[in-house]
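Saturday, quiet lab. Running sequence design on the structure tokens for the scaffold JK sent over.
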């Protein structure tokens, strides 16, 4: 059974995150500055003539600030619900309902824009370069899931993340990946994290935000994108029918950060807390290899609550007597 972490350790780690947020006061905590073009440097449609019409800007238009704040509030509320449904109510059906709702809103409606995964690059660059400014909203989106993971485990992964939800819904008949292979593949996300940060903090001419450029599912959320990325995303979904959440477990760089934070969580998924059974049904039900010796491994647990649905103590309280 996982030993309890002293409260002072949690407070120290939380304080470290707060300190990190203040390391670059002109970067991480700065508001985005509105850019105004001083002169008209390109010919306008009035001067070109001939019925020419200036095409629409292809990048997303700015969202009103109060709506951005609303997104952050909804993210916090959704993670709170995930913690409550999984740790207190221990209910797989309602947890899955929350996952689908977040896929609809954060995935298809907001088109994957509320993304702590991609914000890794923005936050890293703002710390390395004080001249690079990001909004408070981006800072909040990056840090909130990590703080929740410090206390309750990976609630963002299981209840809120639209990338995880896409893979959660396609699981049909998962196989158990051998432990050694699973551990080896799990190292890939840390390598990806290091490469992404290294490329993000390069000078502007060489800078590259690879996490966003190679997001396998954003093309589905926006219903447009490069054909090769759609094929890659489809490949992950096909693989996800037999291997539980392959992107989350082996490539998601933010998942690596959440995994380390969840090691310190004082609370997390517990299987049969009132009476221990050795039937092994929970281990067979977990598609993520997150159960060892009939106990949930918090750094790997993705809050799917499948172990509850398979446990006789949960489905039949008389079994716990």
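Result came back. Writing it out in full:
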């Amino acid at each position: 059974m996982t030993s309890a972490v002293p409260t002072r350790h949690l407070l120290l780690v939380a304080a470290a995150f707060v300190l990190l947020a203040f390391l670059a006061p002109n970067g991480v905590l700065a508001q985005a500055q509105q850019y105004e073009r001083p002169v008209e440097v390109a010919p306008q449609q009035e001067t070109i003539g001939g019925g020419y019409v200036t095409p629409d800007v292809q990048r997303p238009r700015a969202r009103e600030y109060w709506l951005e704040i609303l997104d952050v509030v909804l993210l916090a509320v959704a993670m709170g619900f995930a913690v409550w449904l999984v740790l207190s109510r221990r209910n797989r059906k309602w947890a899955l309902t929350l996952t689908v709702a977040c896929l609809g809103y954060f995935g298809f409606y907001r088109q994957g824009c509320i993304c702590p995964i991609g914000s890794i690059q923005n936050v890293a660059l703002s710390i390395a370069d004080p001249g690079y400014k990001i909004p408070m909203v981006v800072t909040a989106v990056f840090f909130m899931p990590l703080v929740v993971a410090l206390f309750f485990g990976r609630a963002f992964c299981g209840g809120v993340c639209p990338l995880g939800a896409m893979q959660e819904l396609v699981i049909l008949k998962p196989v158990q990946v051998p432990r050694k292979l699973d551990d080896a593949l799990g190292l890939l996300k840390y390598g990806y994290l290091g490469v992404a940060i290294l490329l993000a903090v390069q000078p502007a001419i060489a800078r590259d935000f690879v996490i966003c450029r190679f997001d396998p599912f954003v093309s589905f959320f926006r219903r447009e994108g490069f054909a090769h990325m759609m094929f890659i995303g489809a490949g992950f979904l096909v693989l996800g029918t037999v291997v539980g959440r392959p992107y989350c477990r082996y490539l998601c760089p933010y998942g690596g950060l959440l995994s380390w934070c969840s090691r310190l969580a004082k609370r997390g998924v517990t299987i049969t807390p009132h009476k221990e059974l050795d039937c092994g049904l929970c281990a067979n039900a977990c598609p993520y290899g997150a159960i060892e010796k009939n106990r949930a491994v918090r750094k790997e647990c993705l809050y799917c609550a499948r172990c509850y649905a398979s446990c006789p103590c949960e489905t039949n309280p008389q079994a716990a007597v």
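Notes for JK: Residues 7-31+66-271 form one domain. The longest helix spans residues 65-88. Ask whether to fix the surface positions before the next round.
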